[in-house]
């Protein structure tokens, strides 16, 4: 019975990997790129995302800057994103969902753009909903991305159970470089998987939380036996 269960778990582990593997590779690559996407933007298009920092470092007052942006674009500003780095242009979202890159020292509009046509925005869209958006503005594939993350969590739990089942489990947390290729790959898979188990669970779970907020909040409250505080409202732009 134990051997049958072990065989069933191993096959389940492999099938789940095959079903979600391609999407998880995509999510992993785009997730890593998101960390550096804005830096890449500034590197390849510095004229659109960076500004010349004056010696006094004084930015325009927020009300004046907002009025200047509205005057030049004929659109109210719904979101302003200041930067801590004095060499970076600030970003603002307009009422028509367009964005502008603005010089905070002069109020000059450097660039007006569609957010999801930038390097960062495209990578974000690919990572969170595989780019696809229907005619009504819905993003149905974002649920599939969350399903893949859930499958990944289940797969990791199955893998940990398989590792815990036999005896001498700690002795198997060893990589033997001189072993045969098949054994070496298995050892790398097992050891790396066990060491990264908790971080990977957290990454997958928090990724799902962007889409399945209510469900992940319920799980978190059940596990911690605490209530998750609601997100504070953003300050209003006047």
Automatic annotation (TrEMBL):
Tell me the protein's name. Answer: PepSY domain-containing protein
- Which organism is the protein's source? marine sediment metagenome
- Record's InterPro entries? PepSY-ass_TM
Coiled-coil regions listed: none
Question: Could you list the residue ranges that cross the membrane?
Answer: 14-37, 115-132, 144-164, 184-210
Q: Name one Pfam family in it.
A: PepSY_TM
PANTHER family per UniProt: IRON-REGULATED INNER MEMBRANE PROTEIN-RELATED (PTHR34219)
| Keywords associated with the record | Membrane, Transmembrane, Transmembrane helix
Query: Is Transmembrane there in the keyword field?
Result: yes
